[in-house]
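Anyone? Bumping this.
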Amino acid sequence: MTQLPESSSAPRSDAVSVKAVDKTFDTRSGQVQALTSIDLTVSAGEFVSLIGPSGCGKSTLMRLIADLDQPTAGSVTVFGKTASQARRDQDYGIAFQQAGLLPWRTVAANVGLPLELHGASSSARSARVAELLDMVGLSDFADRYPDQLSGGMQQRVAIARSLAEKPDLLLMDEPFGALDEMTRERMQTELLRICAETGAAVVFVTHSIPEAVYLSDRVVVMSPRPGRIQEIVPMALTRDPEHAEALREERAFFDGVTAVREALHTGSPVPTGARGVENR
Amino acid sequence: MTAENLAPAIRRRRGAPARELVRWGYGLLGILVIAAAWELYKFLGPADGVVIAGARVLPRTTDLAMPHTWDMVARLFDPVTRSATANPLWLEVALAALTTLGIAAVGWLVGIVIGFLLALVMQRWRLAEWGLLPWIILSQTVPLIAFAPIVRSWGSRIEIGAFEWQDWMSVAVIASYLAFFPIAVGALKGLQSPDVIHTELMRTYGVGWWKTLLKLRIPASVPYLLPALRLGAANAVVGAVVAEVSTGMQGGIGRILIQYAGQASGDPSKAWGPIFGSIVLGLAAAGSVAILGAILRNYRRVEINA
């Protein structure tokens, strides 16, 4: 745990395996069924998005994988270990909707925080931080403070931080949700490039259909009350890192969007011309 | 000691030197306005003050009751007594003020340690917060004058080997009793201030309470702690002066406040020397925290979300 793994020594088992998971929350007004009979497997290196309307439990599912909450029934394994063991072994990196940077630390110190907490030597740390800042294109901002950065830059710092310990799994809870559309598209393309470079599996929570389609190998469509998996839609997009942006204009992309939309609207064909209308 | 006083000192000071000068100017102007009001009332007010239904609502304006402001200032540079070897008043007041400042500083430091430890316990265990916080608030309602002599008499019974309880220690204990309160409350607020996202982040890093405390909670508490420390410093000075008076300790400013006030019938301006001294003392104590704030200025940054 104190050492940075040089290469992914974990056995190439599935990154995430969720089996028959239920999750209920006890609230004042009684029990709330957040998730019911969830089965999901994410292979190593695979990009899986969780999409669905508010209250469908997509964030809860991600939190179970991160061991920030525990399932009421069923099992969650990460690289063949319990979620709790995987958390303690630092098998995943995590990014939230808010960057969550520590305001009193410089960009470099924020990115290096997990390394510092786990006792990496300062020379190893600064080398890794330089590498990560280069990866997210913020090398010139290493000594700035978070309040001196734009929202998009803060989020890039958070992503660099989540990658600090070379995790084989990235958990992202609407990381681009608070960004404007243009920054968002650029960040998506950057994320794809970073994933291709690191080979990490990703569990990505979003409620944007184009975002899910553009990024994912598979899109998990969830529905609310109680939260459950409606359908898993495989994406058949051919990815070419050189021309990642061009994908947004392709036929296959629009087909993917349609497929996910239909799944979201519980399988009923979506009438054309009613784009953007949500009938929850 | 309201919640507003403990609100985080989050505004960053980006004062140009000119603006700094203007602020000092306003401070000086305030003093001049008070002095002018004093002299104006002294000039216009009736010699016997204003009495309504047998109660005097405004003071007499005689030189005995209200000396001229310039007399008060001039008196500072005259010798304390008629004796040829006597120090000027300002020096006597300054020496006494330094004694009190030293005792107040000890009380402040003790107050910081106790206040911070209490905050840590209350942060760590919710139950401790419910159990302790009401008592901490209640502790401040005990009249200081009432229990200062008790502290002194308890202290005088303490004698461990070569260690003997000194009078100034009683004063420091009482000063710390006033100082710990804002620090305990402010530190608790600060330690509890990190967002859920930050505490969860620490959890995903698999680190425990101790490392979370060092890397997250203590740095995050700085904006809350600084105003609390400033209040604590001012409280420690008040506590020390009051404790000096009520325990009868020699050498501090509390003692000469009483002593010179007793001589006011013969030398009315003299009593104002220690009053000015104690004001400067409080300002110096609170101001020293500002230096601490300048050193810790990076911890006063706040997160700005996009």
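Late reply, but here is one note on the structure posted above: Chain B has ten helices and four strands.
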